[in-house]
Amino acid sequence: MQVAKDKVVAIDYVLTGPEGEVLDSSEGREPLAYLHGNGNIIPGLEQALEGHAEGDKLDVTVKPEEGYGQRDDAMIQTVTRDMFEGADKIEPGMRFNAMSNHGPRIVTVTGVEGDNITVDANHPLAGVTLKFAVEIKDVREATGEELEHGHVHTGDGHDHEDGHDHE
Ligand code: ZN
To answer: Which one-letter DSSP state was computed for residue 151?
Structure first.
């Protein structure tokens, strides 16, 4: 079966950055399953997989505009320490969930000066050219429920970041 809109595709992948450093990988985990053509994965990778079939291996280079976007300096902000309820120690590199105008976001602390904390809400991979080594492990039809929800349901419970309920 070929990768096409509304098929469930399972891939093994290794993601490396510009210096060849491994940023993410499915190694030691189940292949990543996603619903093709529904914006579940970054556009550059989704487009590259289109038309391929189970067993295919491909190397895909994804530019930031087809990946996690360009970095936006407007997403770097300085806030006061009292914004971080319940965190006794705040250090650069720490990540927090924060509510923004665009909904919940993960922010990374990039600077601490007294009570002033600088946070960056850019995606950690924004502005980065990504290289994926992908192997397509499986392509199957989606279930009606998966199509309705726009994402994959795996056998062992659901990964539902949007918090919806299946019962
Ligand atoms: Zn669902």
So the answer is: S
